[in-house]
Amino acid sequence: MFAPRPDRTGRGARRQAAPAARVEVFVDDVALRVPEGASAAAAVLLAGAALIRETPASGAPRLPYCLMGICFDCLAEIDGVANRQACLVQVVPGMRIATQRGARVAFAG
Ligand code: FES
C-alpha cells in the first residue's frame, strides 16, 4: 500500500507503473475510455457528469459518493437495467451507463 521512501542513493525509488489498459464505455451516450477494472461509478465521475440519478421524491441530483456500496447515490441504468449500484459494477467494453430519473419502473412478467 505504501511506497518506500527513496534513500540518498536512490534505492527504493518508486518505479513507474505501466499504464492500465483502457476500455470504451458510454456515459449518457458519450463515449469515454476508462482504465480496465474501473467501476461504472468511476466512469461517471471521469465523464464529468452533473448527475447519475435523480431522487424519486424531490428530483434532487445525485452523483456517486461513498464508492463502496453504502449510500446508493450511484444508482444508474447500466446496459438497460435500472437501479444498479454503479460503484459495485466493473466496466466492460461497450457498457452503457445512463442517468436514472425518478423511481425504477417494475415490469410484470
Ligand atoms: S457510491 Fe455509494 S453506494 Fe455507490
Automatic annotation (TrEMBL):
Listed Gene3D superfamilies: 2Fe-2S iron-sulphur cluster binding domain, sarcosine oxidase, alpha subunit, N-terminal domain (3.10.20.440)
Stored SUPFAM superfamilies: 2Fe-2S ferredoxin-like
Alphabetized UniProt keyword annotations: Oxidoreductase
Pfam families: Fer2_4
Listed name of the protein: Sarcosine oxidase subunit alpha
